[in-house]
From TrEMBL:
Pfam families: Peptidase_M78
Species the sequence originates in: Rubrivivax gelatinosus (strain NBRC 100245 / IL144)
GO molecular function: DNA binding
Protein name (record): Transcriptional regulator, Xre family
Family: Belongs to the short-chain fatty acyl-CoA assimilation regulator (ScfR) family.
Classification via InterPro entries: Cro/C1-type_HTH (IPR001387), IrrE_HExxH (IPR010359), Lambda_DNA-bd_dom_sf (IPR010982), Rad_response_metalloprotease (IPR052345)
Domain HTH cro/C1-type, residue spans: 19-73
Highest taxon in the source lineage: Bacteria
CDD domains, sorted: HTH_XRE
Length: 358
C-alpha cells in the first residue's frame, strides 16, 4: 500500500481547468469570463494554462462568475503550485542522475540552456511525457533493470544504464533487420569468427551487422556514458533481437567474447534483458555461466579442447593454433587465461587494442 505521505503527483492540473469546465456548464464564453474578471481575453487563456495566479480578488470574482467558493479557488491554486513545485523538484533531481552532458557530446540529444528545456529533450529521448512515466517504463519489472536491484548498478546507475539502452534501441531501429531465426543465427556464429582477425573495427563492424541482420539480430555499438558500467547487453525489443556493445575494454578478446556471450543469451534465453557490467564481475548466475560456456565453445570447439590444453605457450604455436581456429591470437590468449592455463599477466601483447571512431 502507498502511504499518502509517499504520493508524488505525476501531473499538476491548473485551477484554470476547473474554471474552463464550470464555465462550459454555464455556457460562458472566454469573453464573458474576461469581462467579469476585468482582464484581457489573453489573460483568461493564461489563467486556463496556469500561468496566471488566482489571487484573493480573482478568487472572489471567479466564485461570482463560475461558482464554487473563494476558499475553494484559493485552495485549488495553492495545491496546484505545490504540485508544480514537486514536479519541478522531481524533474531536477531526475535530470541530475542522467549523463546529460555525455548524451549531448555523443549526439544523442541537442544542447539546452534551461532546466525545463533539458527536461523536455530528455523526456522526448525516452519517448515519455513525465518522469513518473519514465519510472513506470524503465524501472518496472518488464524493463529488466530490476533484475539488478541488489547490485550497485541499479542503486546508483540505473538512469545512465537506461539512457545507454535507450540509445541502443533507437540505433537498432534504424538498421534494416530481417525476421528473428534462432536456427540461422546459431549456424551463423562460427562463420563470424574470421571477422575477429580483421584488425580495424571500421572494416569488420559493417560486415558483422549485415550478416547478423539477415538472421534478425541488430548489432549496435553504443559508447557508454558517465555512470554506465555496461560492456554488453542482449534483449528482444519490439520483436527485434538486439546485441548492444559498449566496447568498454577496447581489446579484441573482450569485445568478441562479449559479443558471443550476448549471442549465447539470445540463443539460450529469450525471456529477459541480460546486462553485462563491470560492477558485477563475480556473477555466478546460471544463465551467465551458460552464456560463457556457449561463447567459449563457439570460439574453441569441444573437439579442439584437448589440443588447446596441450598447446605450448610460445608465440609461434599460439599464432598457428589461432589461425587454425579462425580467431585472433588475442582471443586465444583470452581463452587460455579464462581456463586458467595461462596467467592473466602473460601473453597480453598478442591482444589487439581497437581504436573506435565515435
Amino acid at each position: 500500500m502507498t502511504r499518502s505521505g509517499d504520493f508524488r503527483p505525476a501531473w499538476a492540473s491548473p485551477p484554470g481547468e476547473t474554471v474552463r469546465q464550470l464555465a462550459a456548464k454555464k455556457n460562458l464564453r472566454v469573453d464573458d469570463i474576461a469581462q467579469a474578471l476585468g482582464v484581457a481575453r489573453e489573460d483568461v487563456t493564461q489563467l486556463f494554462n496556469g500561468k496566471v495566479h488566482i489571487t484573493a480578488a480573482r478568487a472572489k470574482r471567479l466564485a461570482d462568475v463560475v461558482g464554487a467558493s473563494v476558499h475553494f479557488w484559493l485552495a485549488r491554486e495553492a495545491q496546484y503550485r505545490r504540485d508544480l513545485q514537486t514536479l519541478q523538484d522531481d524533474g531536477r533531481q531526475w535530470l541530475s542522475s542522467l549523463p546529460f552532458a555525455d548524451m549531448v557530446t555523443y549526439g544523442w540529444l541537442k544542447a539546452a540552456t534551461s532546466p525545463s528545456e533539458r527536461l523536455r529533450r530528455v523526456l522526448e529521448f525516452f519517448g515519455v511525457e513525465t518522469v513518473d512515466e519514465w519510472r513506470d517504463v524503465w524501472l518496472s519489472d518488464g524493463a529488466g533493470l530490476t533484475a539488478y536491484r541488489t547490485s550497485p548498478v541499479f542503486a546508483a546507475q540505473s538512469a545512465s544504464l537506461a539512457a545507454w539502452l535507450r540509445q541502443g534501441e533507437l540505433t537498432a531501429a534504424e538498421l534494416p533487420v530481417g525476421s528473428w531465426s534462432r536456427h540461422h543465427f546459431e549456424r551463423l556464429l562460427p562463420l563470424l569468427k574470421p571477422l575477429t582477425r580483421v584488425r580495424e573495427p571500421i572494416e569488420f563492424t559493417p560486415r558483422l551487422q549485415e550478416q547478423c541482420a539477415a538472421c534478425g539480430v541488430a548489432v549496435v555499438i553504443v559508447r557508454a556514458p558517465r555512470g554506465c558500467p555496461a560492456s554488453g547487453a542482449a534483449r528482444f525489443c519490439n520483436g527485434k533481437a538486439i546485441i548492444q556493445l559498449s566496447v568498454r575494454y577496447l581489446r579484441d578478446d573482450s569485445f568478441w567474447f562479449t559479443f558471443f556471450h550476448e549471442a549465447g543469451h539470445l540463443i539460450l534465453h529469450e525471456d529477459r534483458l541480460f546486462l553485462e557490467s563491470s560492477d558485477r564481475p563475480d556473477i555466478d548466475d546460471l544463465a551467465e555461466r551458460e552464456a560463457n560456456q556457449f561463447a567459449g565453445q563457439v570460439l574453441v570447439p569441444a573437439s579442439e579442447e584437448a589440443a588447446l590444453r596441450a598447446l605450448p605457450h610460445d608465440y609461434r604455436s599460439i599464432m598457428r593454433f589461432a589461425k587454425n581456429l579462425s580467431i585472433s591470437p588475442g582471443i586465444l590468449v583470452g581463452q587460455l587465461q579464462y581456463r586458467g592455463l595461462v596467467r592473466q599477466d602473460k601473453l597480453n601483447f598478442l591482444k589487439k587494442r581497437y581504436s573506435w571512431s565515435w
